[in-house]
Amino acid sequence: MSLLFVEFLGIVVAVSLCILVTVVWHFHRQHQKYDHLPGPPRDSFWSGHIPSIAKVMAAGGIMDDYVLETSKTHGLFFRLCLWNQVVVVVLDPDCIKDVLVTGNHPKSKRIYSRTGSIFGARFLGQGLESQIDNKHWILQRMHFDQWFKPNFIRQFASEFNEFADCFTEYLETYADNKTEIHTLHSFNKLTMHLLYKVAFNIDMGSLHGENHPVVTKMKKALTGFAAQLSNPLVAVNPFKWRFRRDVQKAIHFVRGNARQEMIDRNVAKRNGDYFPHDLLEYIMDLKEKYPSVMTDDILLDNVLTFILGGQETSANTMSFMLDLLGRNPECYKKLQREIDENVGAVSVISLNEIEKLPYLDMVLKETLRLYPVGKGTFRETIKDYNLGGHLIPAGTDMMVSFYATSRAEQNVRDPTKFSPERFHIDSSEKFSKYASTPFSAGPHTCIGKKFAEIQIKITIAKIMQNFDFELVTGQSCDLADNAVLQAKDGVKCFFRPRETVSAAS
Ligand code: HEM
């Protein structure tokens, strides 16, 4: 061996040792900063609690199941280590109020900066969901809040009805009590078509047959979104290059399509054509009034944000609702009775009629308590912060798991039981309103809550008006975590037309 080679080897070993010592020191300092907080012991110095989380996921659970399990032994406030990153988990309702509402904490930069682009392709960009600059977010939110106000959304009641009718017509074709309907696929198509129509006046065609190309590409983009959020290694894995390329192409297609819609609308407006006050119209007015805030790119970011925020969330909620009703025949019958008695067979369900269905409201709330499809959210401390008597260092991510909070025995009585009555105004069971916040709370609360509630209630009421259904047997209750919470088997049902529907009294 030449002297030169030995010297070279010596340098390589010394540099590697220096790197190792620096990394060990960094990990050690990171852990030390949080050692005063409660939490389970780390599985490993390097990966922290990742092995335990991976074990739960390998057994068919989601990360939030691990969080819920941990809360049984470590309480409603604890720290978790994900590699060198420490996350403070907050499941205590009073602390959640502080994290989401009163404490004025911004969204976590580490988490939300990853939602702006997927594999380098701009996706949600700097729209409401991914905007981490608070000043810019406030400006956008202030403008969009107007469009999503309940009184504004009410004017779309006829479109919500029209789409629910298209959906029942679609179901009729297969309602022979022996054809399996994958309700999640069907609801996904419905919510995508409805969003495009109500928000952008775009007709995506029939619910039967092949998907519209935008639906197919959007699905691909969403798969990439979920993959990037759940496993950052997908972005660098050389064997995944084809997947990354397809996702990038899909995103370019979807953004290009939305951009073209905006151009076409401009031309049509110049020609004096009539348009409803849809979201696109509203967005384009904003651009004229505030050209420096609402650039073309920011507007496109928000178009995609509303589609992403509104489509799978509502579709999954409706599937979970059918699943829970199918497994709880008494609740099913009670809901059907309420709809028969208050709405009967009317063909257009107005918002006044929807307000006459308190049990439907309770069923929706209880469904979202058990399956908060948005799962959770993250905020960040900008200075050292005292939360519930625990000192949290500046720059820490605080995770609120809606799923684990509303399933924790400390927060809700008999939490795994489906009991819509617990949301009755006179219920003897009292729990904090921060024990179940599926639409989040505080300034970042879901902007589309009213939109989702109206859409879901009209669609479910129409299904119950027209059909009886039962779950296909042998389906698992396993959950999948694909950016939103999903039923792995998609909630398959058999439908049959109802024989008689009594008139509303
Ligand atoms: C059952 C249906 C829905 C559920 C459970 C849900 C849940 C949530 C949750 C938990 C958040 C807060 C996320 C966070 O704090 O990071 C959120 C935010 C948001 N949602 Fe929804 N959502 C639903 C439907 C919708 C609909 C229909 C739309 C639009 C058409 C929408 C648009 C948004 C937007 C834009 C945000 C970001 C708000 C902001 O940060 O200013 N969502 N949603």
From TrEMBL:
<keyword id="KW-0560">Oxidoreductase</keyword>
<keyword id="KW-0472">Membrane</keyword>
<dbReference type="GO" id="GO:0020037">
    <property type="term" value="F:heme binding"/>
</dbReference>
<keyword id="KW-1133">Transmembrane helix</keyword>
<dbReference type="InterPro" id="IPR039983">
    <property type="entry name" value="CYP46A1"/>
</dbReference>
<feature type="transmembrane region" description="Helical">
    <location>
        <begin position="6"/>
        <end position="27"/>
    </location>
</feature>
<dbReference type="GO" id="GO:0033781">
    <property type="term" value="F:cholesterol 24-hydroxylase activity"/>
</dbReference>
<dbReference type="InterPro" id="IPR017972">
    <property type="entry name" value="Cyt_P450_CS"/>
</dbReference>
<comment type="similarity">
    <text>Belongs to the cytochrome P450 family.</text>
</comment>
<feature type="binding site" description="axial binding residue">
    <location>
        <position position="446"/>
    </location>
    <ligand>
        <name>heme</name>
    </ligand>
</feature>
<keyword id="KW-0408">Iron</keyword>
<dbReference type="InterPro" id="IPR001128">
    <property type="entry name" value="Cyt_P450"/>
</dbReference>
<keyword id="KW-0503">Monooxygenase</keyword>
<dbReference type="Pfam" id="PF00067">
    <property type="entry name" value="p450"/>
</dbReference>
<dbReference type="InterPro" id="IPR036396">
    <property type="entry name" value="Cyt_P450_sf"/>
</dbReference>
<protein>
    <submittedName>
        <fullName>Cholesterol 24-hydroxylase</fullName>
    </submittedName>
</protein>
<dbReference type="InterPro" id="IPR002401">
    <property type="entry name" value="Cyt_P450_E_grp-I"/>
</dbReference>
<keyword id="KW-0479">Metal-binding</keyword>
<dbReference type="GO" id="GO:0005506">
    <property type="term" value="F:iron ion binding"/>
</dbReference>
<dbReference type="GO" id="GO:0006707">
    <property type="term" value="P:cholesterol catabolic process"/>
</dbReference>
<keyword id="KW-0349">Heme</keyword>
<keyword id="KW-0812">Transmembrane</keyword>
